[in-house]
Write the structure tokens for this entry.
Amino acid sequence: MQKNSINKVILVGHIGNKPEGRYTPSGTATASFSIATNEYWIDSDRGKQERTEWHNIVAWSKLADFATEYIQKGQLVCVEGRLQTQNWKDKEGNPRKSTEIVCTAITPLGKSTKNNIIAESKSTEK
């Protein structure tokens, strides 16, 4: 039996809404947003099928600042992170559970004018 385990998620999808940035009482930046991934297939009747899965993402510290400033709704991104499940009770006392991806890396994919301008200005400042 293997003693080590891996909790790693890699998603490529489109941003659902502009990341919402906040700060904890201790001043740590956090951002939350969603990513849509799509799956396509042909069913037994040769009909095209599609399913969209929505994933909740949470970023912390400098990664949260980056997401809030540079990531836009509809943008194609690659997100890496780990799964984290939280349990709580709602107002009626019913147990609830949610699973989110705690982000460790965000890579914008495709064209993004704002990101390209930032990257170019940083490379010419050396």
Q: What stands out?
A: The two ends are 51 Å apart (CA to CA). Strands lie at 9-15, 20-23, 29-42, 48-60, 76-89, 95-108.
